[in-house]
Amino acid sequence: MVAHLLRLKLQLLGNGLRRSTWQVVGLLLGLLNTVVLLGLTSLGLLATRRVSLELWEITVVFGGSVLVLAWWLLPLLAFGVDSTLDPYRFATFAVPRRTLLLGLGLAALVGMPGIATVVVVLLPVALWVPDLAAAAAAALMAPVVVATCVAGSRATTTALAPIMDSRRFREVAGVIALLPVLLLGPVLIQIGRAAAVGRDAIPGLVEVVSWTPVGAAWAVSVDVSRGDWARAGGHLVVALGTLAALVAVWHHFLGRALVTPPSGAGGARRALGVGLLGSAGGATSAVAARCLTYWLRDPRYVGSLTLIPVLPVVLGIVSGGNDLVVLLTIAPLCAFLVAWTISADVAYDSTAFWLHAATGLPGAADRAGRALAAVAVGGPILTVLVLGAVAWTGRWDALPAAAGLTVGIFATTLGLSSAISARFLYAVPKPGDGPFNAPQGSATANLVVQGIGWLVLVVLVAPEAVLALVAVHAQSEPVGWAALVAGVGIGGVVLTSGVRLGARWYDARTPELMQSLRELD
Amino acid sequence: MEARRVAPHPEPPVALTVPPPPGPAAAAPVPALALRGLWKSFGPKVAVGGIDLTVPAGSFYGLVGPNGAGKTTTLSMATGLLRPDAGEVRVHGVDLWADPTAGKRIIGVLPDGLRLFDRLTGLQLVTYAGLLRGMDRDMVASRARELLAALDLEASQDQLVVDYSAGMTKKVAFAAAIIHAPRLMVLDEPFESVDPVSASNIRAILREYVGGGGTVIVSSHVMDLVQRMCDHVAVVADGHVLAAGTVDEVRGGRTLEDTFVDLVGGRRTGMQGLEWLRTC
């Protein structure tokens, strides 16, 4: 039975690859990525081992704990657990729960993250040499660590499955998960600064972490290398206790999962009346109103908006409040973020796009409506950001330059997006998914289209960017006005021609778009 | 009268001759929908291999066929959602693929297996469909409310479509399909997962619509339903039309289901080979 489950997982992976060449390319790139990361990790570990025994011990306990914690928490927050072997799917088969648990656990290791984890857990075994006792301890603890990772991830996801099933939880969690990732940079910088001062605190911290469920299994080999058998025993007890508890929790909730299939629906949400569509008086404004509704209601759009309040904080901290950065990166970057979002507009619609196709909506109305919605979202935000940056730095002379660059990037990106989304579809999270459930194997195709788009963008906004830089740097207001003229001028031309080109592509290729959307779905 | 049995077209559409468009001399009434030599393949798989179909104006036309017969592909091509590799579609005489805008204006489409803009409420979705058709705002508002009332969706009109049940989703898509009062309705599996009361209401709407001169094409798996509801039927399998005509012609005195199974083939007798299933 266990072998069956493993074979099933492999078969599912294999069938996924047979679906498209891009999946294979994606897998190969993922593999390359993993190999490079593993290589870097090994080099890093080797380096710390060479530097000093003390640093090596710290690395083993800390790094190991982070790995375990990542297994426990990331599926909850960001990725969602790999649902190819969802326990619900076995509900109708009479598989003994114990067997199912073992099979699912082993199957969880099949795949890139699982294999990489096994390798990383085994690395210290080799690196402990010539201390053979510690190496042996690490080798004995390796299966415990791996099992703790897997059991923990399944215990948390299975236990919380009923909550995670509700659409609202997934949407909120997906958006919230982004914040710590964004704040990681600034936080690390702060920690780096603090660590330079409070170095003495580290051994104490290691001591605490080593007695937690995430660190105990890693600490055993450290204790053995020191010959401290009592502590080794203590850590071993904590590690095994943790594993037993996790397996028990998983076992319990797996039983529940097998008899309570997902209900799917949470509370049905309501919105009164026709909303924004009520004020629409034509096809173009109808499209704009519908898109605007999506900007406010669809987590995939909301996700790109949640970045906006965070971005100024991050850039402000990282740059140390540098004028040039505050004036010329925050608002323009947000302008890009908002405007680039609609480059995936049709892909976000997914097959719901049929309504546009079947009603014979003119391409011009489709393109203009989507661009208008982005303007309605971006306009107020960007105005606040530009004025805020100028006020905060007190550089009112730089207002034309900052405004010019922001408007230029916003309009140019909108023009490019309007053309791109009518011609190229890339795989995006499906309707109802969070903003970060990008489908597997899509990375390469996305990167090619987006990379070319970005290259064109850089060339097109270069004039106002250079002028704005010069204006702010040399404190020259006339150059700033030149930047504003360039931004509005070039942006305006690119926006209108982008919308026009997009409309022509749309009119000529609506059925082809529809067919590709069906294939992507 | 004998049913018209149409021979399959095994040859690829290389030297396909398109019949001349009905000139002014043609005395026969212009059909609501005429498909001529429609062909579509996906990679090596031929989904629709040369379908000819004439749907007379004012008819209630059923399209039946086993799973994977090419019904949805055919209807997609007939409504401008999928470009055929070869062949011609005429909607009330308008060449759909030469002038899609004019063609789509008179068709109402309910596709199967496609998503909806489900972050809108039911009312918003139906309104949106009307506005996309370029209809006047007040007319859209009044028709949307009337449609939702007729389909028993009034109570849930302010609920997001994503939270609708499968049957409610079908109904709201049906409302969105017909808000512009099309001359031809193309409905792919319109009764799937719709509750019996609503299905009966929808059938009543459709019958009255046909009575008033409109044309309806429905695809379905349910032979009984097609036999009771439709006046014309076409049996499709493997991308070809096996039989087409009035329901009485095609079934020739038997039930439509028996005719269908005979045409499509694959009938087995009971538990032959499954004797172990007898447990008592």
TrEMBL record, chain A:
The keyword Transferase does not apply. Keywords: Membrane, Transmembrane, Transmembrane helix. It comes from the Bacteria. The chain crosses the membrane at residues 21-46, 58-79, 100-126, 132-151, 172-189, 201-220, 232-251, 271-289, 301-318, 324-348, 369-392, 398-426, 447-473, 479-499. This is ABC-2 type transport system permease protein.
Automatic annotation (TrEMBL), chain B:
Residues 9-21 have a biased composition (Pro residues). It is a peripheral membrane protein. Residues 1-21 are annotated as: Disordered. The keyword Nucleotide-binding applies. GO terms for biological process: response to antibiotic. It is found in: Cell membrane. GO terms for cellular component: plasma membrane. Its main location: membrane. The keyword Nucleotide-binding applies. One of its GO terms (molecular function) is ATP binding. It comes from the Bacteria. SMART domains: AAA (SM00382). Keywords: Antibiotic resistance, ATP-binding, Nucleotide-binding, Transport. Residues 33-263 form the ABC transporter domain. PANTHER family: ABC TRANSPORTER ATP-BINDING PROTEIN, DOXORUBICIN RESISTANCE ATP-BINDING PROTEIN DRRA. This is ABC-2 type transport system ATP-binding protein. It comes from Flavimobilis marinus.
